[in-house]
Amino acid sequence: MLAAALEPEAEVDVVDVVPLLGRLVAGAAEGGMEKTFGAGRMHWLFDLEYLLFSRLPTRRLGQVLLYRLARRRLLEAASRYAVVVSTYPIASEVLGRLRAAGALRVPVCSAITDLAALRYWAHPGIDLHLLTHPESLEEVERIAGPGRALAVRGLTLPGFLTAPSHEEARRRLGLPLDAHVVAVSGGGWGVGDLDGAVGAALELDDVRVLLLCGRNELLRRRLANAFDDRVRVLGFVEEMPTLLAAADVLVHSTAGLTVLEAYMLGCRVISYGWGVGHIRLNNRAFARFGLAEVVRSRRQLRGALDRAVAKPRTPHVDEFAELPAAADLVLGLASPEVGTAHARAG
User: Fold this and answer.
1) What angle separates helix 89-100 from helix 58-78, to the nearest 10 degrees?
2) Which of these, 248, 261, 191, lies nearest to 220 by C-alpha position?
3) Are 301 and 251 in contact (CB under 8 A)?
4) What is the spatial distance between Cα 86 and Cα 66, in angstroms, rounded to a whole number?
5) DSSP assignment string, 34-87
6) Residues contacting 222, CB < 8 A, separation 6+
7) CA 319 to centroid of chain Cα atoms
8) Counting CB atoms within 10 angstroms of each CB, which of 123, 299, 302, 345 has the fewest?
9) Which domains, and CATH codes, for the chain?
10) In whole angstroms, what is the distance from residue 164 CA to residue 274 CA?
């Protein structure tokens, strides 16, 4: 989204940063995630990794090790650009250290799409932190210092600012106008207690359920015929603005950007089914800021669904439309001697 917004004014490179982190870091970050997230097992391992590298004093050792392993490749790659935008927290940590040390001479932005647990997303060396959640400002400034972060628009699909009305979205998706519609999402990996979430939703009167399995094809095939015709089982969905405009409630497992997108459109949000690692801290922040109700059991989920469908729909699109554009801020950091800005996203 940010790259597309920059392209009319700048030459943009979008680069997968993971290979630049080195084989050891890339293997731990990507391979470990696939095993613990995608396979739906070994969640204790992800919890342990997060505790060691993000919460305990061992975090500092992990940050130093990461910097030593990845600094040379990232410095070489980033130095070719007028502005660097990182969308990957591990890369943001290394780039911030390079910038603070004076080794990297071009401005760096960190595009932050999580609400909380931002220790690797934010760094005092980063020139500007671009926030999807205005509520993240306090935590980022506590880590990076005051005046280094702004809430922005342009890090979500533009369609969320121009989404169809609730009624039009229902018509486009072939959903009844007077039924309760519950979207159940396991994020891109299709994780969490999706069976339980669907079962709880089906206890509502006159309900339709949209079950989003992300890119987990094994899950989609397993659940394709597991429920009655009130449930529509979907894979990865391109038209999320329309889907969330149509839904009354989103039950989401991984505390991702989809929660914010649903909140923007007035779709009530429940976080349930997969509270591990950094998701625990994001869930606490969702509850603290009133962005989502967080529940831990199927019994609690049933009550939360009743409360959610009883609430009025309150869109927040106008609030986000008034925020500064991320692309304008990135371009503003470009050196005046350079006619184009290069954005690099990991």
Assistant:
1) 80
2) 191
3) yes
4) 16
5) IIIIITS--HHHHHHHHIIIIISTHHHHHHHHHHHHHHHHHHHHHTT-S-EEE-
6) none
7) 19
8) 299
9) 2-153+323-332 (no CATH), 159-317 (3.40.50.2000)
10) 30
Indicate the residue type of 91: A
Question: Is 173 strand, coil or helix?
Answer: helix
Q: Phi and psi at residue 262, in whole multiples of 5°?
A: -65, -45
Nearest-10 Cα torsion for 174, 175, 177, 178:
150
Q: Where are the beta strands (DSSP E) in 99-256?
A: 108-112, 128-131, 149-151, 180-185, 207-212, 231-234, 249-252
Phi/psi of residue 253, nearest 5 degrees: -100, -30
Place of tokens 């400034």: 141
Strand 84-86 to strand 108-112: parallel, antiparallel, or no bridges (unpaired)?
A: parallel
Angle between helices 194-201 and 298-310 (to 10 degrees): 50
Supply angle C-alpha 291, 292, 294, rounded to 5: 140
Per-residue pLDDT of the chain (346 residues; tens, 9 = 90+): 899 999 888 999 998 888 887 666 655 555 444 555 544 555 655 655 655 565 556 667 767 778 888 899 999 999 999 999 999 998 999 999 999 999 999 999 999 999 999 988 999 999 999 999 999 999 999 999 999 999 999 999 999 999 999 999 999 999 999 999 999 999 988 989 999 999 999 999 999 999 999 999 999 999 999 999 999 999 999 999 999 999 999 999 998 899 999 999 999 999 998 877 778 889 999 999 999 999 999 999 999 999 999 999 999 999 999 999 999 999 999 855 443 444 444 5
How many residues in the chain?
Answer: 346
**Threshold 0.85, pTM exceeds:** yes
d(CA 264, CA 244): 9
